[in-house]
Amino acid sequence: MIPAVPCRCRFVPLRRNKEKQMIRDWLDLPPFGTFATLALLYYGVAAMLIALIFVSPLRGPIAKLQGVVAPFFSSVAVLFGLLTGFLGYDVTERNRQATRAVQTEAGELQNVYTLSVASVSDMHSIRIALKDYAASVLKNEWPTVNGVAAPRTSLAYDQMLTEISSPAITRDSGAAVHVALLSSAVRVGTARNTRISLSIDRTSDLKWISVLLLGVIIQLGIALVHLDKPRAMAAALTVFATGAIVALGLIALQEDPFSGVFQVSAIPLEHVLSLPDTPELPPNATPAPPPQKP
């Protein structure tokens, strides 16, 4: 007889996971789907409240709640405004960090390029390697960024580091130039890691759920204030619903900094690709002589 073994299974809260997945799926919708979902929620709640108060069999008991004054619900409106502001700040700050990461990555590549041109020794191979890296970022990593580094881009970055780490640079151009090149290359990798991590960074689902629910609660408060005025109630609910749809919809469109309508521009990295492999010297300049052997 096989002895019974106590089960130590860990049960996953399916309901919470489903709620989070619903928020994720909604934020991944195209712009029309995002606004349509918000319109269905808030306009639907408004229509349901009007029907419940003036058409349903419960209109008699609900009418006894007349007398609620508007300032009583001002605290809920303040909470809604504050949470919406915090939500918008989180999204905007993440987009700002993503933009800064891309600009830093492209700027450090530009520094490597400038140093390779200004140095005494020929660093044509370094310029080719950094442009290959920038091209790989735009082709292999940027379109499918999902928090994971593209293998081809990682190989291109390793190849650039290999070229920059050559001991011949210290011998031919000096230790100061070599250290500056290595420092810029390391900062390129740091900015790349930041860019990749921000590609999957999302606002807490709890914040989105809280803001959406507070919007519904405000609609309930508006309805309680206009229990005896159906037209005024419909107008107030429509105005609030429209404002909530526009505000929350615009914030939702900026949730992902690397896709959608308001995505981070790749122009700084594209500019790196436009740099010549072998830049022309000014007319009055002469190339530096090669170092003489002792």
Automatic annotation (TrEMBL):
Keyword DNA-binding annotated:
no
Q: Which residues cross the membrane?
A: 32-55, 67-89, 208-227, 234-253
Looking up InterPro entries in the UniProt record yields:
DUF4239
**Is Cell membrane found in the keyword set?**
no
Q: Which Pfam families match?
A: Bestrophin-like
Q: Which UniProt keywords apply?
A: Membrane, Transmembrane, Transmembrane helix
Chain coiled-coil ranges: none
* Name of protein: DUF4239 domain-containing protein
Q: What are the top taxonomic ranks of the organism? A: Bacteria, Pseudomonadati, Pseudomonadota, Alphaproteobacteria, Hyphomicrobiales
